[in-house]
Structures are given as structure tokens and as C-alpha cells.
Amino acid sequence: MSWSPTGTGGGEPWDAHAREAFIEKAARSMTELQANVNNLADVLVFLEVLGYNDGDAKSVGLSGMYELSQHVFDRVDYYDEGTQTPSARPTDHVVPVASARRRLIESLSLATPWLGALALLYVFGVSLWMAWGLPLGAVTALMVGVFLGLLISEGPLQAFTRIFMFYHSQGNVSECARALRRSYVALGGLLCGSLVVLLASTFLLRVPWELAGLAAVGTVTISIHRIGYLPIYALKKTTQVVVSYAAALPTLLVVFEFTPGAFPDPVLRYLVSLASALGVLSVFAWYNTKQSLVIQKTRLVGRDAPSFFKPMFINTHTISSKFGVQFWETLPYYLSGTFFFMLVFSDRVLSWLGNPVKDVGGVVLPLVFNSAYHSAADLALVVLFPVAIVQYVMLSTIHEELHNLSLDLSVDRTAEVDKFIRMRHVKSLAVTITASVAAAIMAAVYAHSFFQRMGTSPLSNQIFYIAVMGDLLLAVFVANSSFIVMLNGAKLLAAITMFGALLVCSVGILVLPMGFQFIVYGYLAACVSVALLSTLYLRSLLERPSSLFFARFT
Asked: How far apart are CA 147 and CA 129, in angstroms?
């Protein structure tokens, strides 16, 4: 660039050294105000904030603020990196990482519903699903409804949770509300279709209508409850989860135990107690849904940001996103959630078909709740509980850790990111297997006395130990799945999960004539398959993990 021997700011002569000093001073002042500026527009804004104007730029021979910004932008890297030690590096872009203790507390808080339900339902019944003292026909109808509600709500929950979290992180209140409304509409459509199928099956199979009503109640209540808690779990409102279930579960117990005079029929009393607990949970769901749509301006940019950098307002009305595009992008998660539920629980439904008891109170039902199979398979499922805790503690902050790590690395040092991801996977898998084996041993010690008390041994013993082996392999699949999703492999993960679910159903149907106790071998075969396939797929992804991870943001 050629320079005129005289400046243009008032015709005064200027000195090249004075101009360079002026630019250096401006660059130093700007980096002290805001480090790691990465575009020319920001430089121009911060220089104006510092009080520089066109007259100052022209006084040293520059054409104006734009040219001054160009020179300052060329020098900011020196002051960001060259004049500061790593320990004194600005932390404007460093994301805080929650401690392991806090993550453990959060994971246990989010697991409160399962912990409370296990404790409470153990008082009522012999498995995770059976209420003590209810007629077998009523239990079967309620569990058909519960399983159907869980099945149809799992997909929308997985898909819309991601959509809601994405827009909430941007502060897009309008789109958050729109995502919640769409989740209600989607679930409403699935509920209507499911109830139509349920009523048609009741008519064709000549099942008593009162049992169909109980199944419909179970379907509607579990579905609405799960979708209502979407913002609570998406935003990790751990305190609200603990408080809501700490109030709801005792309500269920108290109403059921202390109202036999008002409701002598145990089925009606159970429904009333269930409605009372659901009412308590609904209050918290409504409150947190409203609170999740109130986004603070300071939360968008941080409390320590300069006042001039904070937005003066937040748009509460934005252009509507296309639902078709959103659904297509989240379809792999929708399918993964739905088929994972089928993978874990479809063998239970097949055991109802294989139950030799079909006559319930003089009514012949096509399927009947199988307590011998459930008491074994549900107890074995305890193996997966510590897996959820381990995965949350070890992976909930991995995005923040990788972000902070990338701040100190240049483009040619991606091998360090690769090493970090691979080592985290090894540690996660090792801790997952250790915790799962420990849980399996504890369950095995308790199993024999439990089955004796329930009167289901020795048949349940056989089912239990095979199911435990399957769940240990399923723990490996769960650990692999977290990394597959992180590395952009959700589509093939959905295919693997679908294959496992179909394998459980097909093998289970083939061995069903031999006896319901053999259905568990179909579950074991599916667990072996998904663990092996996910391991092979993840191994291929881990050959270039940093490229796949950062590709999500390009």
C-alpha cells in the first residue's frame, strides 16, 4: 500500500512511526476490552465504543475508521496470544464445566421418578408394572395402556426435546413455544390413532369394554405426563423433578391406602390415587412450561458482558420454522427412541401371549400379564440403572470440554482432540461395564429370595440370569450409542436399534410355541447383535472423531 506524504486530517503532516504507534495503541486498547475478536465488524464497533472516530483516523493518514479497523484487526492476534501467558489468557469464550459431584447429583435427581417408582411399586406389587391386590384382568389392561403410552410418546419426546433445547439455547422464545405446541399436536394425533386401534382390537377380539377403558386411561395418562415434562427434563430442572415426585408418589400411596371406605373397589381406588398423583405432577409441568418460555436477556450473553453488548430487546415473534424440515432432521432420534423401547420391552408383551393362563375371572383374554416373566426380566433391568448415571456424569459436559480444548489448539493439532475423545470412550465403557457388573451381582444376590417370596421360582431364575447377560451387553450398546450420536452417526444407530427390536420380536415369536421362558433368548440374541454392531460402527467413527464432531457445527 502506498502512503501519501501528508495526512488528510486538517492538512497536518504526519509521521509513519506515530501512525504505527497510534494503531498499536488502538489494538491494545481494544483487546483489553474484548479478547478473541474474530471479524472486522466487531473491531469497528469496539473502536467506536472506545471513542475513536474518522477524525482520529485521518489525523494519522488513514482514510477513516474502516481502514483503521483493518489495521487493528491485523494486530489483535498478537495482543491476544503473544503478550499473555496461557494462565492469563482471556476466558471470554471459555465455557464453564460442571464438577463431577454436581453432575452426579443432577443425574440422581433426574432419576428420581424411577427411584421413587421402584420403591413405591415394590410396596404394591411384584414388578415394575403390577399393582398389588388388583385383579389380573385389570392389571393386564392397565399395563397394555402403559406400554402403548410409553411406545407412542418415546419418539416425540426424543425428537422435540432436541428441537426445544436448540431454540432455547438461542433465546428464541417464539420457536420454543411453537415446538411445545407441535409436540402436543403430534402426540394428540398418535393418541387418537392408538385409541382407535385399541378400540378396534377390543371389538374384534371380544375383550370386555371396561378393560379397554382401563387400557385407554393408562395410554392417555402416561403419554400426557411424559410430554408435559419435556421442558423440565430438557432444561435439567433437577430441583423441580425431585420436588414434584417427592410430592406425587406419597400422594399416590396415601390415597390408595387410606381411602378404602370411600372407594372399596381396589381398581377404582387405584385409579383415583393415580389421578391424584397425576394432578400433583401436572401442576409442576404447567409451572415449568411457563417458566421455560421466559428467557432472560442476561442469560444470552452472560452476566459479565459489557452493557453495550447486551441486547436491548428480545424478539418474541419470529418466522415460523418448517415442521417437515424439523421432523426430517430429528427422525433418526425419533426412530432410535421408539425402537429402543421395543428392543427392551417387546419380550414382555410376547410373554403375555405365551402365558398359559388365559381365563381371568371367567373371561378368556388373548393375552394376560405374565408375573413369572416380568418379575425376572424387570429385576434384571436394574443392571441398566447405573449405566444412565455413568453416562450422564461422564458425557453431559463433553461438548463444553471439547469447546474449551479447541480454544488452545491450532488446526494442525486435531490429533489431541482425537486422543481426548478416544480416551473418554475407553473410560466411559470401562466404568459402564464395572457398574453394570456390580449391579448384576447385587441383583443376583437378592433374586433367589425375591422369586421365592413371589412364588415364581425356579422358572424365573432361568429367565433372570439370561436376561442379566443380555442387559450387560445392552449396557455396552447404550455406552456406544452416546458416542455414536455425538459423532454424527444417529442414522445408522437408528437402523441398528430397529434391527435389534425386530430380532427380539421375530425370535420371540418363533420360540413362543416352546414356552414363554424361551422368549428371553430372543432378547439375548438382540442384545448381542446391537452390542456387536454398535461396537464395530463406533470403531470406524473413532478413526477420525474430531472431524466428525466439528462437522456438526459447519
From this structure: 10
Locate 391 and state its grid cell: 453416562
Residue 360 pairs in a beta bridge with 363
Cell 442379566: give the residue.
468
| Whether 202 contacts 212, CB under 8 Å | yes
Q: How far apart are CA 217 and CA 198, in angstroms?
A: 11
Q: Where are the domains of the chain?
A: 16-86, 99-299, 367-554
What pLDDT, on the 0 to 100 scale, is given for residue 10? 42
pLDDT for residue 127 is more than 60: no
Q: Which residue has the cell 458416542?
A: 483
pLDDT at 477 over 90: yes
- 450 vs 124, 328, 440, 453, CA distance in Å? 14, 46, 15, 5
Backbone angles phi, psi at 6, to 5 degrees: -130, 150
pLDDT, position 152: 92
Q: What is the mean pLDDT of the chain?
A: 80
DSSP code for 313: -
Cβ–Cβ under 8 Å, residues 425 and 143: no
Task: Count Cα atoms within 13 angstroms, Cβ side, for 179.
Answer: 29
The CA distance from 216 to 211, in Å, is 9
- Report how far residue 509's alpha carbon sits from residue 416's, in angstroms, rounded to the nearest whole number: 49
Does the global pTM surpass 0.70?
A: yes
Type and span of the H or E element at 395: helix 385-395
Name the grid cell of 356: 398359559
Question: Quick count: other Cβ atoms within 10 Å of Cβ 491?
Answer: 13
In this structure, how many other beta carbons lie within 10 angstroms of the beta carbon of residue 229? Answer: 22
Strand partners, 359: 364
Q: Tell me what the mean pLDDT of segment 451-458 comes to.
A: 69
pLDDT reading at 34 higher than 80: no
User: In whole angstroms, what is the distance from residue 254 CA to residue 280 CA?
Assistant: 13
State residue 263's pLDDT score.
82
**Average pLDDT for 367-374:** 85
Size of the chain, expressed as the number of residues it contains: 554
Residue with cell 474484548: 34
| Contacting residues for 168 by C-beta, under 8 A, at least 6 apart | 176, 234, 235, 292, 295
CA distance 119 to 122: 5
CA distance 140 to 137: 5
What pLDDT digit, counting tens, does each position of 498-510 carry? 999 999 999 999 9
Compute the distance between CA of residue 184 and CA of residue 177 in angstroms, rounded to an integer.
11
